[in-house]
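Training component of the fellowship. As part of building independent skills, the fellow (R.M.) carried out the full modelling exercise for a liganded target. The chosen ligand was copper (II) ion. The inputs are recorded below so that the supervisory panel can assess the work.
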Amino acid sequence: MNYKTLTLTLLLGLGAMQAQAEMTMNHEGHDMSQMEGMTMAEAGDMTMTRGIITRLDEANGKVGIRHEAIANLKMPPMTMVFRVADPALLKDLKVGDAVRFHAENPAGKLTVTAIQRG
Ligand SMILES: [Cu+2]
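Fellow's submitted model of the complex:
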C-alpha cells in the first residue's frame, strides 16, 4: 500500500466514523437495535449503475468497466478497473456487454458486489 492510498484510506475511515457519530446523535433516544451491524448496502442502498465491460480478468477477480456516474460513490463517468466481490459474477459476461452493476468502496477498494447484463 503506497502513501497516497494509505492517506486516502485513513481519510475515508475518518469520514465513515464521523458519519456514524452523526447518525448516532441524530437518532439519540430512538431504538437503533434493528440497525445494529448493518452496512448502508444491507440497509437498502443497491444503486445500479450502467456501464460497458472493457476488460475481464476472472482469474484475478477484476473487471474493467466504462461506467456512467456512480451516485452512491459520487464518482463521475469514467473507464476503470474494479475488484469483484466474487469472480463467479463475471462468468456469463464478455467484453463489450452492456451491464448494470452495484459498486461499493469498503476500505478504499472499489468493489463490484452485483452485476448483470442489461
Ligand atoms: Cu470510476
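The panel noted the following from the submitted structure. The pocket of copper (II) ion is lined by residues 67, 75, 78, 80 (CB under 6 Å). Strands lie at 49-57, 62-67, 78-84, 98-104, 111-117.
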